Amino acid sequence: MISFENDYSEGASEKILQRLIETNMEQLSGYGNDRYCESAKEKIRKACGCPEAEIYFLSGGTQTNRIVISSMLQPYEGVIAAQTGHVSSHEAGAIESSGHKVLTLPQHDGKIEPKELADYLNDFYGDGNHEHMVFPGMVYISHPTEYGTLYTKGELAELADICLEYHIPLYLDGARLGYALAADTDVTLKDVADYCDVFYIGGTKVGALCGEAVVFTKENVPAHFLTRIKQQGGLLAKGRLLGIQFDTLFTENLYLELGRHAMKCAEKLKAIFKEKKYPFYIDSPTNQIFVVLENEKMKELEKKVKFSFWEKADDTHTVVRFAVSWATQEEMIDELQELL
Amino acid sequence: MISFENDYSEGASEKILQRLIETNMEQLSGYGNDRYCESAKEKIRKACGCPEAEIYFLSGGTQTNRIVISSMLQPYEGVIAAQTGHVSSHEAGAIESSGHKVLTLPQHDGKIEPKELADYLNDFYGDGNHEHMVFPGMVYISHPTEYGTLYTKGELAELADICLEYHIPLYLDGARLGYALAADTDVTLKDVADYCDVFYIGGTKVGALCGEAVVFTKENVPAHFLTRIKQQGGLLAKGRLLGIQFDTLFTENLYLELGRHAMKCAEKLKAIFKEKKYPFYIDSPTNQIFVVLENEKMKELEKKVKFSFWEKADDTHTVVRFAVSWATQEEMIDELQELL
Amino acid sequence: MISFENDYSEGASEKILQRLIETNMEQLSGYGNDRYCESAKEKIRKACGCPEAEIYFLSGGTQTNRIVISSMLQPYEGVIAAQTGHVSSHEAGAIESSGHKVLTLPQHDGKIEPKELADYLNDFYGDGNHEHMVFPGMVYISHPTEYGTLYTKGELAELADICLEYHIPLYLDGARLGYALAADTDVTLKDVADYCDVFYIGGTKVGALCGEAVVFTKENVPAHFLTRIKQQGGLLAKGRLLGIQFDTLFTENLYLELGRHAMKCAEKLKAIFKEKKYPFYIDSPTNQIFVVLENEKMKELEKKVKFSFWEKADDTHTVVRFAVSWATQEEMIDELQELL
Amino acid sequence: MISFENDYSEGASEKILQRLIETNMEQLSGYGNDRYCESAKEKIRKACGCPEAEIYFLSGGTQTNRIVISSMLQPYEGVIAAQTGHVSSHEAGAIESSGHKVLTLPQHDGKIEPKELADYLNDFYGDGNHEHMVFPGMVYISHPTEYGTLYTKGELAELADICLEYHIPLYLDGARLGYALAADTDVTLKDVADYCDVFYIGGTKVGALCGEAVVFTKENVPAHFLTRIKQQGGLLAKGRLLGIQFDTLFTENLYLELGRHAMKCAEKLKAIFKEKKYPFYIDSPTNQIFVVLENEKMKELEKKVKFSFWEKADDTHTVVRFAVSWATQEEMIDELQELL
Predict the structure, then answer these.
(1) Does the N-terminal peptide bond of residue B144 adopt cis geometry, omega within 30 degrees of 0?
(2) Where in the numbering of this chain does the Aromatic amino acid beta-eliminating lyase/threonine aldolase domain appear (chains A, B, C, D) (predicted)?
(3) Quick one: closest CA in B to D98, which residue?
(4) What is the pLDDT of residues C20-58, one digit of tens each?
(5) Residue A1's pLDDT is what?
(6) C89/chain A closest Cα distance in angstroms
(7) Contacts of A232 in chain B (CB under 8 A)
(8) What does residue D208 show for φ and ψ, rounded to 5 degrees?
(9) How far apart are CA B73 and CA B135, in angstroms?
(10) What would the pLDDT profile of B208-245 be if each residue is shown by its tens digit?
C-alpha cells in the first residue's frame, strides 16, 4: 500500500547511506568532536551566510525544542508559541517537563501575528501583577508551520524587531525547513539566519535517518551547551552519525535538491486535486496538502492508500492531509491519481 | 594513528549498514510501530528467554538511564548506585536534572556489595527521620562496570533478593553487555532477564550506530512509557533506525559474535601486556584493559596510539585504559605490540 | 487611607492571636505532629462530614496548588483549568515548574462548563495522536473563582461525574472558601467534600495569618505526602502555627462566622453601588465586587481609598475590584459611601 | 514531660507575639511590600554592616535552601556540601527535586575543609571529562553545622578565597545562626556578611514562629527573585508575618539576646554533664550537646525527658543530643540535673 501519511516513512537519501558506508571504519573521536561534524558545521555556516554561527547536532525535533528552549530560558520565563505550535500541542509536555510554560497566542493558518505578539508583550509588562506571572522569555515559530504555511520575509523581520525590542530570542523550528526553502517564498536560509537568534535545520523529515542541526546565529550559544545536551540525554557517543549526514546534506546542495523534489511532487499532486475538484482546506505552499474528502470517498481511499486524518469538516466530510517528501516517487502520485 | 581510546570509535557492523540499505525505501510507520521493531523485540524476547518482556528502543546510554530511572521512581525516591556508577559521576547530572537523587554506596572494583546494600536499606528504614530523607526507590548497577568488572550470578541473585525484599526494582545498565556476555562468566542473558526488573542491551558500544534496547522483564513497564520517552526527547520519528539495527544484532547471534571478537582481541592484548611485564591496575575481564605505564613510556606511546588517561598512580606512573571492541582489527594489536 | 484592595490586608482573627499566646510556651512536637494539628483535623473532618478525610496544613495557596497537583499527577499528565484559573495565570508558572502543563478550557464568569470539560476529554482520547500529547490527569476549579463566582451543587455534581468517568480527581481551590460557604448558595462544606477528591480550605484570606488546610476525601492521599511537602519546601518545623490557627477557625463556627461578616459587608457595599448607579461588571455573589468606574472618578477615588485595577472597560471607563473580608469594619464602608 | 528534643518546640518570643497583636488590624500591602518588612531589612542591613545587602524573607530552612540554591545555580551546576550537610541528607531531596546535584565533600565535625574544597575544584577542572560531569556552582556550609560546630574566621576567609578564585558563591545556612553569634567565637554577623555571597539568618529555631531572612551581600540577588519565590510556593500573601517578626528580632538586639540565653543554658547543662562524668561525643560550642549514654540510663531517662537519638556508639552505649534554645527555662535544666 502506498503512503502519503507523513514525511518520515522512508530511510535516508541514498547519498547519506553511501557516505556512512565509506566512512564506517574510520576511527573518530566521540561526542561530535570529529572531522565530519566540523566539515558539516562549516558548510552550514556558509549556506547560512553566517560565519560566526555556532552549530550543534541533535537527534530529533522534540529533543531539540526541549533542549534549546530550556537552555535559553530563565526559570521564571516561558516561551511564546501559536496555540497549534508543535511545542504547545504535540510534544507530550516536553517543555513543561523541563519547567517552563508555553504561553500561547492565537494561530492564523498556523502562524502568529506580529501585532498580536507585540500586544501580548506590551500587556504583560503593563500588568501590575506581572511579577506573579510567567515572563515571556522567547518566541517560538515554525517554518513551515503545522499547516505547512510560511512566514514572509516581512513577517520575520517584524517578529525579529519585536523580539529585539524586548530582548528575547526568536527561535525558528525548521523541522521541515528544506521544504520551506524550496517553496515559492521570499525567505532564504540566509534570511532565517539573519532574523532568528537560533533555529534548527530539520534532517529527519528532509532526507536524514535522524538529526537536526541547531544554529545559534548571534554568538549566543548557552554556556556549557554540550553539558546541557548530555544532561538531557541528547548527546550521541557516535556524533559522527549526525555529522556525516549533515555534511552530505550540505554538499552540492543536496538539502535544497531534496526539498525541490518534494515541491515538484506537491505541485503535481495539488494539480490533480484541483483538476478533480477536491476542495482544499487551506492554501499550503509546502509539502503538506490538506483537502476535504467526502466520508464515503475517504473510506474507499483508505483501503489503498495511507494519509492522515486531520479533523472533521462536517457530518459528511473530513479534512485529511497528504504529505509528500524527498522520497516520494512519481509513480505513487500516478497511482493515487487513479484512485481519486 | 590507531586508537584504543574507546569502544565507539567506528561506525557500525557491516551487516547493520547492509540492512539499512536493503530496507531504505520501504514505507514504514513512525515512532517504532514498524515491522522491524516488532521483529527485533521478538528476537530479544527469545534471546532473553523471557516471552513476556516488553522492549523499547532508545538512542544512547545517558538518555536511557534518565528515562528509565525517572519513569520508575516516585518523586520522593532516589536511585542507589556505586559512587563510580555512570549515573553518579559521568552523566552531567541527568538523573538529578529529572528530579531524583543518586544515593551512593562504596564501589569495590566498580561494583556494589550486596551486604552494604542490605545495610543501607535496613539503616534507612531504621532511621526515625527517614521521612525527611530521600527514599531508596531503585538499585542501579552496570555490567560490565566502569572498570570492566562483572557481577557473578550469585551476586546478582543476592542483589535481586534484597530488592525484592524492599519492593524496589533492580536495574542493570548494559551499555557494554555484549562484552559481558562473551566474557568468562557464569552470567547469561537469561540470568540478567531473570534477576533484573529492567535492563538495557547496549547497541552503541557493541556494533550499532546508536541505540539501546530497554527490556522490562516483569510486566512492569511504566504507564504510558512512550509518552514519557517523547516528553524527554527520546522518541525518534524514524524508529526503524533502531529496530533494524537491533533486528540485525539479534539475527544469527551477531550481538554475541561481536562481543566474542572483542574478547579475543582483549585476550591477545592482555597477553602482550603480561609478556611485556606491564602491571595491570585491575583484573578486568571484559573489553577494557587498565595498565600502569611509566610516564615516559606513556608520552612516547601517545604519539602513535590513542588510549585513555584514567588516573595518576604515583609521581612517575599513570593508570591508562586500552579499549578493544567489535571493530578492533588484529593488525592494530600487532602494531601496538610493536610500540610497547 | 482605607483599603478594599484585597482580603489579606490585615493580620488574623483576634481569637487566633489569643490562642497563639495561650499555647506559646507549650513544648510540642514538630512538623505537624502535635495535639493542635490533631484537634484541628478532627474538627475539620466533622465540619466536612467526612470522617475518613486526611488533612494536611500548608502555608499558602500557590504552595498548596503546586504540591497537591504535582503529587497527584503522573509525569505524563497535566491539570485542566479555566484560562483564568489561578494556577493558569497568576502563580508564576509554579505548576509548569513542577513539570506539568496546565491544560486550559474557556472560562465562563471564571468557571469551566461541564459540557466543555466532557468534550475536551472525549476529544483527547478520540485523537489518534494523543500519546504525543499531555494526558489530562486532574481537573482544577476554584470556588469562589477569580471573579468571585460560585459553582452550583448541580455543576459540582456534573464535574464530579465526568471526573469519575475518566478516573481523574476533581480538585477545588478554596482560597476563599469561607466566603463561598457564607454566600447565598446551595453548596455546603459537606457537598464540597462529597464531590471533590481533594480540596483546600483557605485560611490566609479568611482570618488566618497564613495557612491552608488540604483535605483528601477519598482515602487518596499520595504516598509519603509529608516527604513530598518537605521536598518542595512546604513543611514548617513549627507545624503548631498552622494547627492552632485551624483549630481555632473550626471552633464554634469561627470560620463560617468570619465568612458571614464579609458577606454582610459585601451586601452593604453592593447596595451602595446599586443605589449610586455604578454598573456592575459581573454579578459576583461573594466578597469581591467588580464595578465599572469612569476614569475621572477612579482617579479621584484613588487618592482616598485603595482598590484593584481589573481591566480597561473602554476609553473612558475602567473595571475595578473592591474586596471586603472577615476584617472589614463597617466604618470603612461608610467612609467609602461618602466618597462614591 | 520536659523536652530537650530540639530548638523548635515552643512558639515565639513574647515580644514577637506582642508586636503581632499591636499591628494586627493595620492594613498593609501584601507579598512583603509593607513597612515592617522594609524596617526589618534596614535593621538587618545595619546589623550586618552591609548597607547594600538585599534581603528576602522566607518561611523555613528547606524552602530557603531550595529557592536560594536553585536560583543561583545554572542547570549544569551542582552545589558542594559536606556529606552531613542538611541539603545533602535531611531535606528529602529538595535540591535534586529542583534539578541540581549535591556534590559531597567529607565532613570533619560537620564542616568541610578548605584544602579539600580547593582540591575538589582543582581536580574537577583538571579532569578531561569534566564536560560530562556536574559543574561545581556553589559552596554550601552551615554555621553552626549539624553537629553544632562553628567555622573560624580564618576558615571562612579561606573558603571565601577559594570561591572567589572559581567564581562561585559561598552560601551559609544560618538556621541556628543566633546561637553561633552568641557562642565563644571570632565570627561576627559582619564577618558572615563579608565572607559569604549569600546567607540566611534563621528565625524558626531562634525565637520566631517561622521565617528565615535571606541576605544577598554582593548586589547579586538573582533576577526576578520574587517571581522565583512565588513559583516555588514560598511567597506569603501576608508578608507582614515575616516582616514583623524580623523587625522585632532585630530591635534592641533581641536576636542576639535570645542566642545568649541559649548559650547560658548550654553552658549550665554542659557543666552538669561534665560534673556527672557523662562523656561528650563531640565538643560542640553551640546549643546542641551530644553525649554518650549507657543504654540502661537512656531508657530510664526517656521516661521523663525528651531528647534525640543520634547514633549507636557501641552495643551498650548510645549517642544522644540535648538541645537548648531561646525558650529553655532554667527549671528544666534543674529538673534534668535531678534525673541524670
Answers:
(1) yes
(2) 13-293
(3) B99
(4) 999 999 999 999 999 999 999 999 999 999 999 999 999
(5) 87
(6) 6
(7) 66, 94, 97, 232-233
(8) -100, 160
(9) 10
(10) 999 999 999 999 999 999 999 999 999 999 999 999 99
How far is CA C136 from each of CA A93, C19, C74, D240, rounded to the nearest angstrom? 11, 43, 10, 38
Binding partners of C (≥3 Cβ pairs within 8 A) = A, B, D
Å between D4 CA and nearest CA of chain A: 41
Closest chain A CA to residue D71: A75
Torsion over CA: D58, D62, D64, D70 (sign): negative
Q: Do B93 and D134 touch (CB under 8 A)?
A: yes
Closest by CA position to C160, among listed C182, C202, C192, C133? C192
Mean pLDDT computed over B266-286: 96
Contact (CB, 8 A) for A306 and A248: no
Options 3.40.50.300, 2.30.30.140, 3.40.50.10320, 3.40.640.10; which CATH number does C14-253 get?
3.40.640.10
Q: Looking at residue D31, what is its pLDDT? A: 97
Convert the pLDDT of each residue in A121-135 to its tens digit. Answer: 999 999 999 999 999
Same fold, A2-7+255-339 and A15-253: no
- Substitution target in C3, C7, C9, C326 with the highest count of D β-carbons within 10 Å is C9
| C70, C71, C76 member nearest B231 (Cβ) | C76
Q: Under an 8 A CB cutoff, do A129 and C90 touch?
A: yes
Contact B3 A233 (CB under 8 A): no
The rounded distance, in Å, linking the Cα atoms of C88 and C95 is: 8
Query: How far apart are the CA of B114 and the nearest CA of chain D, in angstroms?
Result: 22
Look at B132 and C74 and tell me if their CB atoms are within 8 Å: no
Q: Which residues contact A127 (CB under 8 A, 6 or more apart)?
A: A133
What residue ranges do the domains of chain D occupy? 2-7+255-339, 14-253
Burial C57-72 (b: 16+ CB within 10 A, else e): bbbbbbbbbbbbbbbb
**Which parts of C110-252 fold into alpha helices (H)?**
114-126, 153-165, 177-182, 189-195, 225-231, 240-249
Nearest-neighbour CA in chain B from D219: distance (Å): 28
Chain B residues closer than 8 Å to C230 by CB: 131-132
Bridge partner residues of B3 (DSSP): B306
Q: Give D80 to chain C, closest Cα distance, Å.
A: 19
Contact D76 B91 (CB under 8 A): no
Tell me which chain B residues have a C-beta less than 8 angstroms from the C-beta of A23: 11
Homologous superfamily (CATH) for A2-7+255-339: Aspartate Aminotransferase, domain 1 (3.90.1150.10)
Instruction: Please tell me which residue of chain A has the smallest CA distance to D231.
Output: A76
The pLDDT of residue B1: 87
Q: Which residues contact D334 (CB under 8 A, 6 or more apart)?
A: none
* Interchain CB distance below 8 Å, A96 and C134: yes
Ranges of H-type helices in B148-221 = 153-166, 177-182, 189-195
From the number of C-beta atoms within 10 Å of its C-beta (0-12, 13-18, 19+), residue D163 rates as buried
Residues on D contacting A at a C-beta cutoff of 8 Å: 70-71, 74-76, 99, 131-132, 135, 223-224, 226-228, 230-231
Q: How far is CA C176 from CA C88, C180, C212, in A?
A: 17, 7, 10
Please tell me the CATH code under which domain A15-253 is placed.
3.40.640.10
Widest Cα–Cα separation across chain C? 62
* Number of residues written out for chain B: 340
Residue recorded with cell 479621584: C300
A233 burial type by CB count under 10 A (0-12 exposed, 13-18 middle, 19+ buried): buried
> How far is the CA of B201 from the CAs of A4, B179, B261, C318, C333, in angstroms?
34, 11, 17, 65, 73
What are residue B276's phi and psi, to 5 degrees?
-85, 5
